[in-house]
């Protein structure tokens, strides 16, 4: 079966082809070109792109939205399977064809962030049941003060239940919580915990500090042996970043300062920032501006973080502001994240031989950009009016 998409602006890794065409056979990209070389044939299924942009599907390495679908209101929870179905449709409509659900192991400190959610989601995905619109994978986040988390994550690595691991330290004085006061305010806002409950939580964190170096060593060793990508979270100093390459870390997520981001870039770590940071023009937590990092040439990856629709709109915003060319901006959400998680041989660009995960995008009258069609492995999975 061959499918021809014609009259599209093809966004290739290094250039655009206006009024272009792309031919898919079975799951893979067979060929592409400009209008003058467009193939014909009665056996080819043809789709008119109406001058829309044809992009590789977006690859999101970090979104914790699944937690909101499980618990849309405090203490109101839904079954994980239903939550995954909702996430599947919403992410597809945002142009994401491969989602790494960022789920946390932190002994249930923050409501729905529980061992059970992580285990239930991993069991569903390992079973490979369900006709999903997109590809679903797990980004397992380890809170380093967690007593149970490191053992659970080692089990997940052994079972190949996750494909990306990240290390988080939300102790007072670390990352985005420079003082205990800031951390207390965040916990109170996020969980509605009482002062006594927060006191207990912080005391547990303090008691676990001596075990953190051993946990880092164990988890990174297991991830390296399994060939998994490893990330860190909220790096704030150059000295902190400098310890990571020897442990196999390949990505620094949301560095909070230019110093940390610059050092990560110098050491060859992919620097990942949030697309909402780009769209809003600033960090929600008052940390490093993603735009500042992109202008400095040190940001490699953009992720959804907490707002999936920002990924697509960040790409076109960067191009419209002429901060990056459109191909350069698209690489931040396709080829570069694919490279971090060792998927770039098969995914992440409109390249002959790669899997045809693609999206067709049209601008709206309001100046935003909307997904009109989504293809997964060459199959048209979503068509929006």
UniProtKB/TrEMBL annotation:
Ranges of residues in domain Amidohydrolase-related: 213-378
Pfam families membership: Amidohydro_1 (PF01979)
InterPro entries per record: Amidohydro-rel, Metal-dep_hydrolase_composite, Metal_Hydrolase, Metallo-dep_Hydrolase, PhnM
Name listed for the protein in its UniProt record: Amidohydrolase
Species classification: Bacteria, Bacillati, Chloroflexota, Ktedonobacteria, Ktedonobacterales
């Amino acid at each position: 079966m061959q499918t021809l998409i014609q009259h599209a602006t093809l966004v290739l890794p290094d250039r655009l082809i206006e009024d272009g065409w792309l031919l898919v056979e079975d799951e893979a990209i067979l060929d592409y070109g400009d209008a003058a070389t467009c193939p014909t044939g009665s056996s080819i299924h043809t789709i008119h792109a109406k001058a829309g942009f044809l992009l590789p599907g977006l690859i999101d390495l970090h979104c914790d939205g699944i937690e909101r679908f499980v618990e849309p209101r405090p203490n109101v929870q839904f079954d994980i399977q239903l939550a995954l179905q909702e996430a599947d449709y919403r992410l597809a409509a945002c142009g994401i064809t491969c989602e790494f659900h960022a789920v946390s192991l932190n002994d249930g400190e923050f409501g729905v962030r529980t061992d059970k959610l992580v285990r239930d989601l991993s069991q569903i995905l390992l079973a490979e049941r369900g006709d999903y619109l997109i590809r679903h994978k797990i980004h397992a986040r380890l809170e380093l003060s967690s007593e149970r988390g490191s053992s659970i994550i080692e089990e997940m690595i052994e079972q190949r239940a996750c494909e990306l691991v990240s290390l988080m330290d939300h102790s007072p004085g670390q990352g985005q919580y420079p003082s205990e006061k800031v951390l207390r305010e965040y916990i109170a806002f996020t969980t509605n915990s009482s002062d006594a409950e927060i006191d207990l939580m912080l005391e547990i964190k303090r008691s676990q500090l001596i075990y953190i170096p051993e946990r880092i060593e164990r988890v990174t060793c297991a991830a390296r042996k399994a060939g998994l990508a490893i990330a860190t979270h909220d790096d704030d100093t150059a000295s902190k970043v400098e310890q990571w390459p020897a442990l196999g870390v390949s990505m620094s997520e949301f560095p909070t300062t230019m110093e940390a981001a610059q050092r990560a870039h110098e050491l060859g770590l992919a620097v990942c920032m949030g697309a909402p940071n780009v769209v809003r023009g600033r960090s929600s937590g008052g940390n490093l501006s993603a735009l500042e990092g992109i202008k400095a040439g040190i940001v490699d990856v953009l992720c959804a973080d907490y707002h999936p629709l920002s990924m697509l709109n960040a790409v076109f915003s960067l191009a419209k502001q002429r901060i990056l060319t459109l191909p350069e901006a698209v690489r931040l959400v396709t080829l570069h994240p694919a490279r971090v998680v060792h998927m770039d041989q098969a995914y992440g660009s409109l390249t002959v031989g790669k899997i045809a995960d693609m999206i067709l995008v049209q601008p709206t009258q309001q100046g935003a950009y909307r997904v009109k069609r989504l293809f997964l492995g060459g199959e048209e999975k979503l068509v929006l009016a």
